[in-house]
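Hi,

I'm pasting everything inline rather than attaching a file, because the server keeps stripping attachments. The sequence lines come first, and each chain or strand is labelled.
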Amino acid sequence: MTSLSLTINGRAYGPMDVRDELTMNDFLREHLGLTGTKFGCGAAQCLSCAVIVDRPDGTSHTNPTCVVAAIDFDGLSIRTVEGHAKDGALTALQTAFVEHFAFQCGYCTAGFLNEAQVLLERLERQKVARGDLEEIIGQALDGHLCRCTGYVKYHQAVRDVILADPGRYLV
Amino acid sequence: MIFASPLPRRLKALAAACLLAGLVSAAAATGQTADIPAAGTLASPDSFATIEPTEARSAALFTELGKVLTAPRCVNCHPAGDRPRQGDERRLHQPPVFRGADGHGLPAMRCDTCHKAANFEPGRIPGHPKWQLAPLEMAWEGKTLGQICRQISAPERNGGRTLEDLVEHIGTDSLVGWAWAPGYGRTPAPGTQAQAGALVQAWIDTGAACPD
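And the predicted assembly:
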């Protein structure tokens, strides 16, 4: 057992003792009831289990949870899919996902949503040219697997959010 | 009974799939070489003996060594950015991983989360006890061979190594040696590690000149 403290969606958890071999995915789903984070391949290859890790320098990245021990997240601040909507109001990204019917079964949606959110925040810090946008979105979402093959709709949804507010994301 | 008729066919299909999967797994477990792309070759230092002047011979030796240094097995973990690449296609590493402060990844996604002490063929995951990214100052990705040569010759950009240290690093270091035994689906670096080490030694002996 190892002591674990972390912040999830702005709320502090711990310190609490958890088994060393407990995965972060099981910790979120079984211990905290945050079942929005899915368990997919179990090998960090589909990224349906990805959450957002907020770094101290203000940048963020996504991180699989299925192959990583919960204790490896000790001291970190993360966001899960439950942390996007505020007071029941969907974010622009979530709304775009819905409007594009970007997901079908929805199993991969949390991972795509987290990845796209990280991309939006990165573009706010480092704006890009419109001509590079398609490739940048593609690179960002690459690695997330959707067995319903909703890739194009996810891509279009992210693109629409960016183009709806070009001054925020584009040079 | 509604499934009485289709079920045997399903079972047959399942059995066939299992058999196929078993054969594939068995091939991987026995290390059959059919799944490992053929590697290129390296010329021996003697092959360059007729090149004059010596400086040109030295540069030619490094150019030959460059077949190793620019191979995906080497460049993928000498990236120009914070993310390694993978595969012979040099695609960005999936899942997304980052260099981190020590080159071993970020706190919740260390290299050794997946990369263990040896290649894990059933999962196609390469491994070595020292698995890590080369420091950013040692990035080779996107650089010409001449740029790599000048970089690798400078202690401040080669990990503090002397030229003689490079013979050992390239010729005998076991993590570097992984490049010649990378496992399933990855083309090994050209030649052998010993041949690469011999080229480094010959390059140094001829003045360690760099190609343009």
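Chain A has a mean pLDDT of 96.

If the labels don't parse on your end, tell me and I'll reformat.
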